[in-house]
Amino acid sequence: MKTWALAVFILLGISCHSVHYYSVKDDTVIFYLNLPGAENVYFAHSLDDYIHHNVMADKNGRREFAVTANSEFRYFYIVDGSVYLPECEFRESDDFGFENCIFVPKW
User: Of 17, 45, 65, 84, which has the fewest beta carbons less than 10 angstroms from its beta carbon?
Assistant: First the structure.
């Protein structure tokens, strides 16, 4: 039983970690979201007053969204009509009772 529980914990940890990540190339940050079962996903960020950008999935269900960013900004997703906040290093509460992730450039 302990081995089974450890295996589930490891798998869940890997799965959760790989759901959302980003890479930085020059002054662009590319966000990746792996939610194969999601039908509608939007990305919103503070650099353009939280316009909802539709993010299409590839054949494996991975979504990718690029933001030109030279400064810190806030962001979140809307997945199938509900706000979705992934695991992120920095976050803050907003004025609407939700939280936002904060992207902080490291260059």
Answer: 17
Residues 41-85 pLDDT 10s: 999 999 999 999 999 999 989 999 999 988 999 999 999 999 999
Map tokens 């890479």 to a residue: 23
Structural domain boundaries in the chain: 20-103
86 with 20: CB under 8 angstroms?
yes
What tokens were used for 26? 């020059």
Nearest CA among 73, 22, 81, 76 for reference residue 47: 73
Cβ-contact 51, 77 below 8 angstroms: no
Between CA 53 and CA 45 the distance in angstroms is: 9
pTM over 0.70: yes
* Short-list 87, 2, 14, 85, CA closest to 43: 85
Half-sphere exposure of residue 57, counting CA atoms within 13 Å on the CB side?
14
CATH 2.60.40.10 fits 20-103, yes or no: yes
Residue type, 75: Y
